[in-house]
Amino acid sequence: MTHIVFIITRSDSFGGAHVHVRDLSRELRRRGNEVTVLVGGGGSYVAQLVAAGCQVRTLRHLVRPISPMRDVRGFFEIRRHLRELAPDLVSTHSSKAGWLGRLAAASLGIPALFTAHGWAFTEGVRPMRRRLYRLAEAAIAPLSRRIITVSEQDRQLARRLGVGSDSQLITVHNGMPDIGESLRADPRRNPARVIMVARFDEQKDHGTLIAALAQLKDMSWELELIGDGPLAGRARETVRAAGLQSRVTFLGARNDVAARLAMAQVFVLATHWEGFPRSILEAMRAGLPVVASDVGGVNESVTDSRTGSLVQRRDVAGMRDSLRRLLADPELRANYGAAGRTRYDECFRFELMVERTVDVYRTVLPPESARFASPP
Asked: Is 69 exposed, middle or buried (0-12, 13-18, 19+ CB in 10 A)?
């Protein structure tokens, strides 16, 4: 039996990296491998991991903010767990876990990888933060046997900025488990329900979506916003100022996102920066047309004028015009949604992502671990 340890920074939030670790851990365990997840804190994510059948160890000192004293303690805490567990492979996710996890694994001679779920030094991030994270990632990259990027754009960005070598960097697009027919959307229905699933924080751009819809009051539509976060209050105030209270619903964090997507007709992701957003794959899986900001690897999933529309970052007019076309034309929505579902089937199924990830793992494991990810 091969043993892999996943490390991720926070358990009090839930994003694409968390879904990735949970689903991949569950699948590798189903295939007969031993899986342990080390995660900072004891938030709600821990319960999801336990429900998925994973062994979980919570870390007191693994925190997101840079804190020299806490980070030194975090390094030794991770190292102690890795020494006790003696895994065959360490897979790190999120920046802080990536830095400390790779350092700890290297100090014990355990092969380690890092999966970048969107670089913190990508365009759209504040300049000072970009410089800091680029320097940190470049310094720690030599400790990675491989660096997996979830978009080709992120792989090319890392190469261009000297983070990792060609032999280390490899792209594996995200994949999502399929859903049943009952969770497929009907984009033709009117009035159209627009939906955005995103945390309310500095990365996402709810303001552009709200401003665009404020210019479409002459059309029939309603908007659902799913997610929580520190900027939710600001978004509510923006909605009030635009006079859209009766047409916009804030649903908070939800456990039934697939069901909400099934009741929608258009999916939107307005955002300042991304790696390769899983929410878009969820929408394509449901058969929804997608309107999204053309940042990061978004255009590696959304094909403009075929599965949806790509608009420039902060482009209110572009967002408005794209939404107007879709809101006015149920057949166009259906055609884009069907094309998106086909693209999901061909490129972004969970099984494809697992096999491609496993192929990367095999390259850093010794020959005796070749059965590491064999299906049952």
From this structure: exposed
According to DSSP, residue 289 is labeled -
Nearest-angstrom CA–CA distance, 112 and 361: 9
Q: What is the band of 197 on the pLDDT scale with cuts at 50, 70, 90? A: very high
Domains parsed from the chain with CATH numbers: 3-175+349-369 (3.40.50.2000), 181-347 (3.40.50.2000)
What confidence tens digit (pLDDT) does each residue in 3-12 have? 999 999 988 8
What pLDDT, on a 0 to 100 scale, did the predictor assign at position 96?
Answer: 94
Residue pair 90/111 in contact by the 8 Å Cβ criterion = yes
303-320 residue pLDDT tens: 999 999 999 999 999 999
pTM over 0.85: yes
Q: Say what the pLDDT of residue 376 is.
A: 58
Task: State how far the Cα of 109 lies from the Cα of 162, in Å rounded to an integer.
Answer: 24
> Are 112 and 144 in contact, with CB atoms under 8 Å apart?
yes
CA distances from 344 to 21, 100, 232, 267, 279 (A): 20, 35, 30, 15, 12
Among residues 177, 171, 174, 179, the alpha carbon closest in space to that of 353 is found at 174
Cβ partners under 8 Å of residue 305, min gap 6: none
